Amino acid sequence: MKTKVLVLGASYGSLFGTKLLMAGHGVTLVCTRPTAELINREGTRVHFPIRGRESLLEIASKELPGALSASTPDEVDPGAFDLVVLGMQEAQYGSRGVRELMGRVARARKPCLAIMNMPPLPYLKRIPGLSTEPLEVCYADPAVWEGFEPGLTTLASPDPQAFRPPDRPKNVLQVACRPISRRRASKPRNRPRCFGISRPTSRESGSASATRPSKFR
């Protein structure tokens, strides 16, 4: 039996979605309207580097056995899905439209798999003896996670780093594989870290808007 999966975020989320499509599952990506229209018209294309091969391997969603669609946050009914994948950056869940969708996800009591850049608060509440209240300052908008059941929220290790090539349409994603030695040798960041993720807080920047992107992808 195939699974219907809702993926919040069509940038990094399209990498996870492509793997689901390869297994024949149904995937709906949540993104802005222009990106949704592009994906519904042309599908997605993910480029993978292959060892021993000079050119990138392109995997097009239209050539996969699964079914792909894209929608804006206000068009989505979480109750119609078996699983919700949280593939946006943490600060994006407070964006207008996404915040309301998160409320519907919580009320639908659907299992959530987080592949985001930091663990969601409901997942941390599953850890015995851990007080999550002092950790709320690490989140752009901790109220977004109210109503989520810890037992329905889990966390997966992130996939290899992926990015949208600046000169390509927004339905194209490229996976970047770097040697472990290069990642470890990268320059340390001077900003405070929350769960290993560095980003300025509103107190550092002087404005809460500095921690939130202007729009989600």
Helix and strand arrangement:
Blueprint: E1 4-8, H1 13-22, E2 26-30, H2 33-42, E3 45-48, E4 57-60, E5 67-71, E6 83-86, H3 98-108, E7 112-114, H4 121-124, E8 153-155, E9 162-163, E10 172-175, H5 180-184, E11 193-194, E12 197-198, H6 202-205
Parallel strand pairs: 1-2, 1-6, 2-5, 3-10, 6-7, 7-8
Antiparallel strand pairs: 3-4, 9-10, 11-12
How would you describe what is shown here?
The chain has six helices and twelve strands. The chain is an alpha/beta fold and 217 residues long. Strand 6 (83-86), helix 3 (98-108) and strand 7 (112-114) form a beta-alpha-beta unit.
Strand arrangement within the widest β-sheet reads 5-2-1-6-7-8
Tell me the structural class. Answer: alpha/beta
How far apart, in Å, are the first and last alpha carbons? 30 Å
Question: Count of helical segments?
Answer: 6
Name the features.
four-stranded mixed β-sheet, 217 residues, alpha/beta, single chain
Can you describe this structure in just a few lines?
This protein has helices at residues 13-22, 33-42, 98-108, 121-124, 180-184, 202-205; strands at 4-8, 26-30, 45-48, 57-60, 67-71, 83-86, 112-114, 153-155, 162-163, 172-175, 193-194, 197-198. It is α/β, with parallel strands linked by helices and 217 residues long. It is globular and about 50 Å long.
